[in-house]
Amino acid sequence: MYAMNNPTGILPGILPGILIVEDEFLVALDLEEIVSQAGYRVVGIISDVKGVEALSEAPAAAFVDLNLRDGPTGGIIAKHLAEKFGTRIIFVTANPGKIGELPDTVVGMLPKPFSPKAIKSSLEFALEPDSHTAPFELKVLPLNSLLH
């Protein structure tokens, strides 16, 4: 399994692949631009559960909105990504109270609206080799102090 062979999803010499799970077109484009400018590869933008089936590459990390084109399926997608690929999950949502059961690889949550600095900092945090082993309590990522 991918996650067991490479728990960070990062291959030497290859930029980490980042997935965007978002149904609002302009928000998805904004995330794509921020992620690309930060030096990461966007491996896809999906807006519903069916999009997960079309993934051709395991993402190292994913920004996941909760409410998508097919309803409140962001949590289902996050769980699938975590179980199948070991993908580090960063929820990006205006509805943090609606996050249900957490996949093992969740590293935090960013509220909407977000800043480019918050997205970049959250990726750096998520892709640290030991970020998934720390005790986790769902809250805004501990980078808010860096954002101001």
Verbal overview:
Strand 1 (17-21), helix 2 and strand 2 form a beta-alpha-beta unit. The longest helix has 13 residues, at 25-37. The protein has 148 residues and is an alpha/beta fold. The relative contact order is 0.16. It contains 5 helices and 5 strands. The chain is globular, with a radius of gyration of 14 Å. The chain has helices at residues 2-5, 25-37, 49-53, 74-85, 116-126; strands at residues 17-21, 41-46, 61-64, 88-93, 106-111. The protein starts with a helix and ends in a 22-residue tail after the last helix. Mean pLDDT is 82; it is low at 1-11 and 133-148. It has a 5-stranded parallel sheet, sandwiched between helices.
The gyration radius over C-alpha positions equals 14 Å
Secondary-structure element order, N to C? HEHEHEHEEH
Strand content: 15-25%
Mean pLDDT: 82
Assign an overall shape: globular
- Give the % helix: 25-40%
**Distance between the first and last residues' Cα:** 40 Å
Biggest sheet, spatial arrangement of strands: 2-1-3-4-5
Oligomer classification = single chain
Question: Which regions are unreliable across 5 or more consecutive residues at pLDDT < 50?
Answer: 1-11, 133-148
Tally the beta strands. 5
Main beta sheet strand tally, sense and closure: 5 strands, parallel
SS-derived structural category = alpha/beta
Number of helices: 5
